Amino acid sequence: MKTVLLAGARTPFCAWSRGRRGDGGRGGALAASDPFELGGAALAGALARSGLPAAAVPRVVWANMYQDGAHACYGARYAAWKAGLPPETFALTLNLACGGGLSAVVEAAQDVETGEASAVLAGGADCASRLAKEVFAPSFTDLSCSQPIAATVEPLARRAGLTRADLDAWALESHRRAVAGRTRLADEVVPVGPVLADDLPVDGLCEDDLASAKAGFPLGLVTARNTHALADGGSAVLLAEAGWASARGLKPLATVTATAYAAVPPERMGVASVPAVRAALAKAGWTAKQVDLWEVNETFAAQLLLDVRELGLDLARVNVNGGSIALGHPFAGSGARLLLGLALELRRRSLSRGVAAVCVGGGLGVAVALEAVVE
Which residues are catalytic? Predict the structure, then answer.
């Protein structure tokens, strides 16, 4: 069975409460919203944009990284409830850290392809603002290699010949693209109460701003400025079986051509998405050069540039509207954003093939290949 992407939506991605917005003001615009509310808003938005009634979608696959709080183990159930889905809707909660949202899409696609469900809402959300430091901070150290996750990318970047200037230049470019792409990015967004838009991209950022950031690790490459911005938010897409969608007169954005998982040693986490991408390309029967657009999660500028080098990508085709360095990374809330943005941009440009990918702490990778459906 063929899986198609019918619609999608995301909340605004907003700076967490301990951070700063792109205009320099304090973050926390979504701090009062729990992950279920953020996830519910995205799920409801995706459903509304499809035109389907809530009862037509029998399943939700939803991810949340921190699962902090008394009810987090039922996260998908509560996100579905917040979205207005009926109690008969089955809801599966996943956790693949910051790869959870894209993993939810992979699992949902498999549900459709195996006939388990005719249509599935998939995505995720996180609200870092609600997390205590003692919960939040330890998750950024990998126990198996006893290193901070950010520190694992520095030796890889150094061996690849990447410099601090290279990393800062990409971070600057991510912001530039996000600022230039605000109107296009707004097509993805549904409001959460009075919050209408992303607040992290910085207009007018310059090289000196990046260069002045303090290095966080011994090799001096990774800084807060060339790392993803911490954000609150959620995203979701609606997948369905192609024949089922056609019978209801629904016009998909794209076909899910291939999905893949992969793993590497944890100290090589920064390139974990590379084997996942290669596996997805092999399943699709494509080469990297045949892919028109890429959405690669910017956990770190170093990781993004390493992926680009290993896969031989053209940077002009990667994250064309900016990435998580500029837009923010709400962990499980990012994956469906990548896929939705990719599908919409392929359609805008009348292009065909796209790949979305995420690397995950611990050395895990997820990738999804899409093919746009011609209107």
Answer: 98, 329, 359
Neighbours of 23 (CB within 10 A): 12
66 backbone dihedrals φ, ψ, rounded to 5°:
-85, -25
Cα 356 to Cα 64, 119, 318, 338: the distances in Å are 19, 21, 10, 6
Residues constituting the chain:
375
Domain residues of the chain, as ranges? 3-372
Per-residue pLDDT of the chain (375 residues; tens, 9 = 90+): 899 999 999 999 999 999 999 999 999 999 999 999 999 999 999 999 999 999 999 999 999 999 877 778 889 999 999 999 999 999 999 999 999 999 999 999 999 999 999 999 999 999 999 987 767 677 778 788 788 888 899 999 999 999 999 999 999 999 999 999 999 999 999 999 999 999 999 999 999 999 999 998 889 999 999 999 999 999 999 999 999 999 999 999 999 999 999 999 999 999 999 999 999 999 999 999 999 999 999 999 999 999 999 999 999 999 999 999 999 999 999 999 999 999 999 999 999 999 999 999 999 999 999 999 987
**CATH number 2.60.40.1180 is the correct assignment for the domain at 3-372:** no
C-beta of residue 37 within 8 angstroms of C-beta of residue 195: no
With 0-12 CB in 10 A as exposed, 13-18 as middle and 19+ as buried, what is 285?
exposed
Radius of gyration in angstroms for the set of CA atoms belonging to the chain, rounded to a whole number? 19
Residues 83 and 152: their CA atoms lie apart, in Å, by 38
pTM, whole model, 2 decimals? 0.96
